[in-house]
Design goal:
Blueprint: E1 2-4, E2 11-13, E3 28-29, E4 36-37, H1 49-61, E5 71-72, E6 76-84, E7 88-95, E8 103-110, H2 117-135, E9 145-151, E10 154-160, E11 165-166, H3 167-172, H4 180-198, E12 214-216, E13 222-224, H5 236-241, H6 250-266, H7 295-304, H8 316-324, E14 351-353, E15 374-376
Antiparallel strand pairs: 1-2, 3-4, 5-6, 6-7, 7-8, 8-10, 9-10, 11-12, 12-13, 14-15
Helix pairs in contact: 4-6, 4-8, 6-7
Length: 398
């Protein structure tokens, strides 16, 4: 019996605990109960999965904490880490072959989670097919793929760098109350890019639309930053649990977009157990919507997230019309979206004479009384500022 090292792929004898080449532990140990298990098993089967999940995920991520070579393909110089997940990471790199030293986002995916050679071979072929398909697409709301390659069990995609905020971070920012027109504009932009993908031959369904896969630039441009590449390198046992209840298609993308708009309106992220856009989850009650949004917008979100796919919008163009109006009206990015806020959160300005705020009456005087000065009790709230620091292309969940 032999043991395959999950980090370097070396075949070790069955009686050793560490890899004879790299010294890595061949089996991971639960930090809570000490139970050992294969690295392909994400969570400890003995502990409570909800409790041990975070610690186990952090322990698994230690496999990929090493920064890649400082220069890949003798061209891309790694300058810093942008984001990281269990089996992937995104780095900011500089193209040394360009005259201006252009910065790109480098997506790195490891096949360490795949144990069998069959899984790794199939994932590599699927990776090439997917990247070649996305590289042929040029759309303003999608990052442009520059290059892709693989080496030593790791697969790389070089794409344009998007400066902005992750939509999940915007939703978490409680001090920022988005204007309804901004939400409608973002929804219309997402409808445009999804409709563009559906009109490809063959049609392309995004299949995993969620706030973490949407970036908003400072100029208000919505960008989808997920190509579904990380899913290709998930073990088959885990991928089986994440398969869609319904096949990905038009209705699943409509539902997923409705869930994103629901998160913007309620200012709450979707439930973590939502694995894919094809999986139905009961939408939140309308009582969870924040004040300041029209009943029309709530009705649009409700229709898009209905349980019966036939009751949802039959097309993304109709979805866009409900959000933005005439099809000929372009959904141009709203540049000042950060400064806008819902009017229901603005406090009225009230001028109260100072003398009315005094508890004790002053003795009357026969001298002429001057007009009491006014004092502003409450002012218009300052435009909410997004406190999170600008991030680059967030493809860690990709």
């Amino acid at each position: 019996m032999t043991k395959l090292c999950p980090k370097c792929g070396y075949t070790n004898p069955g009686n050793v605990q560490r890899c004879q080449t790299c010294g890595f532990l061949l089996r991971q140990v639960c930090p809570r109960c000490g139970t050992s298990r294969s690295w392909s098993v994400e969570r400890c089967p003995r502990c409570n999965p909800q409790v041990a999940g975070a610690a186990d995920s952090q322990l698994f991520t230690q496999l990929f904490q090493t920064t890649p070579y400082q220069k890949l393909r003798r061209r891309y110089t790694v300058k810093g880490l942008i984001s990281r997940s269990r089996i992937s990471a995104v780095y900011r790199v500089i193209d040394t072959q360009s005259a201006d030293g252009i910065s790109y986002a480098l997506k790195e995916i490891s096949d360490t989670a795949l144990i069998t050679a069959e899984e790794r071979h199939e994932a590599g072929r699927a990776f090439t097919r997917q990247v070649e398909k996305w590289a042929r697409i040029e759309q303003p709301n999608l990052p442009r793929i520059i290059d892709f390659f693989s080496t030593k069990g790791k697969y790389y995609v070089v794409m344009s760098l998007v400066h902005g905020w992750n939509l999940a971070h915007i939703i978490k920012e409680t001090s920022l109350s988005l204007d309804e027109e901004v939400i409608r504009n973002w929804g219309a932009q997402l409808c445009d890019v999804l409709d563009y993908l559906h009109r490809q031959d063959p049609p392309i369904f995004f299949s995993d639309l969620k706030p973490g896969h949407v970036m908003i630039t400072r100029q208000g441009l919505v960008t989808l930053v997920d190509f579904g590449l990380t899913r290709l390198f998930v073990p088959w046992s885990d991928a089986t649990r994440e398969r869609h209840v319904t096949a990905p298609g038009l209705t699943s993308d409509v539902y997923a977009l409705g869930r994103v708009l629901d998160s913007l309106v309620t200012h709450r992220l979707p439930d973590k157990q939502v694995g894919s856009s094809g999986t139905f989850r009961q939408p939140r009650s309308s009582q969870g919507y924040s004040r300041g949004y029209s009943c029309e917008l709530r009705a649009i979100v409700t229709r898009a997230t209905r349980r019966d796919p036939a009751s949802r919008f039959p097309s993304l163009r109709e979805f866009r019309y409900a959000l933005w109006g005439d099809e000929d009206k372009p959904a141009l990015p709203i540049v000042d979206w950060v400064r806008r806020k819902s009017l229901s959160f603005a406090k009225p300005v009230e001028k109260v004479p100072v003398q009315k705020l005094q508890r004790a009456e002053k003795p009357r005087s026969h001298e002429p009384r001057e007009e009491a000065p006014t004092r502003v009790v409450s002012r218009h709230a300052e435009p909410p500022q997004l406190r999170v620091s600008p991030r680059y292309l967030d493809l860690g969940e990709m």
